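C-alpha cells as discussed.
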C-alpha cells in the first residue's frame, strides 16, 4: 500500500465514510502534486505560482514525475485524502476555523497527511502565524508547536540544509507538530514560496533578502526536501536517494 492509498483508506474510514470507487482508484496518473488549501479566509491564495515552480524543480532535479497543475482543496473535500502534502499560505490573520473542518484536518494528518504552512507576512509571530498556532492547538491540545532541529530529516531528505530560509530569513528554524518521530505539520515564517514565485513572464515576483539569489536557491532546496519528506517520511536519517524512494514507494496505484 502506498501513501495515497493509506490516506484515502484510513482517512475516510476514520471519518466513517464509504470510499468511492473513484477515490479507491486515485486516478490514472502517477504524478506527484501538492494540494493548495483554501481555508475560507482572505489571503489563502497568495504565493500560488510558487507551488508550480517548486514542482517543476522537483521533477527537474529528482526525476520524480510531477503534475504542475496542482489542485485547490478545501477541508470538506474527499479529494484531500488523495494528496500526501497540502500547502497553506497566508499574509493576515483569520477567524477560528469551524470545528468540523478542524476534525477533518486532524483526520488527514493522523492518517499520514503532511501540512506545510508558509507565512508571507514578513514578520515573526504575525497575525497569520498566531491564527495558525491557535487552530493547531485546537486540533492537538496536547502537543506543542516546537522548533524543528537542524538534525531533522527535513534538513537532509534530499539536500543538506543549514538554515531553513525563504524569501526572508527572519526565523532560524521551522516549527512543527509531531506524532512520535513523524512530523504532521510544518510552519515556516520565512515565506518559502515567496522566494519561488514567478509571474506570467517568467520573472521572479519578489526580491530575496538578505542573501539574494543564493538564498533563493536554498529556499528551493528546502522546498524539495519538504516534498521528499512527504513522500518517504523518516525512511532514514541521512540523505535520501531518489532511486530508492521510487523503488520502495511506488507512486503509481496498481
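Sequence:
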Amino acid at each position: 500500500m502506498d501513501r495515497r492509498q493509506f490516506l484515502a483508506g484510513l482517512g475516510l474510514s476514520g471519518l466513517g465514510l464509504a470510499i468511492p470507487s473513484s477515490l479507491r482508484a486515485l486516478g490514472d496518473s502517477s504524478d506527484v502534486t501538492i494540494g493548495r488549501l483554501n481555508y475560507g479566509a482572505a489571503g489563502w491564495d497568495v504565493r500560488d505560482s510558487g507551488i508550480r515552480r517548486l514542482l517543476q524543480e522537483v521533477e527537474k532535479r529528482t526525476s520524480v514525475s510531477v503534475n504542475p497543475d496542482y489542485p485547490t482543496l478545501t477541508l470538506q473535500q474527499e479529494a484531500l485524502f488523495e494528496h500526501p502534502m497540502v500547502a497553506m499560505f497566508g499574509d493576515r490573520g483569520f477567524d477560528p476555523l469551524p470545528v468540523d473542518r478542524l476534525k477533518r484536518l486532524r483526520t488527514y494528518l493522523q492518517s499520514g497527511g503532511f501540512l506545510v504552512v508558509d507565512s508571507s507576512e514578513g514578520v515573526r509571530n504575525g497575525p497569520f502565524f498566531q491564527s495558525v498556532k491557535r487552530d493547531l492547538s485546537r486540533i492537538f491540545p496536547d502537543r506543542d508547536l516546537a522548533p524543528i532541529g537542524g538534525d531533522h530529516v527535513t534538513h537532509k531528505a534530499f539536500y543538506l540544509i543549514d538554515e531553513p530560509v525563504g524569501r526572508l530569513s527572519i526565523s532560524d528554524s521551522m516549527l512543527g507538530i509531531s506524532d512520535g518521530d513523524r512530523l504532521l505539520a510544518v510552519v515556516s515564517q520565512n515565506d518559502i514560496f515567496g522566494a519561488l514565485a514567478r509571474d506570467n513572464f517568467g520573472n521572479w515576483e519578489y526580491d530575496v533578502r538578505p542573501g539574494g539569489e543564493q538564498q533563493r536557491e536554498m529556499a528551493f532546496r528546502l522546498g524539495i526536501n519538504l516534498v521528499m519528506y512527504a513522500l518517504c517520511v523518516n525512511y532514514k536519517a541521512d540523505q535520501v536517494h531518489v532511486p530508492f524512494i521510487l523503488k520502495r514507494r511506488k507512486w503509481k496505484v496498481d
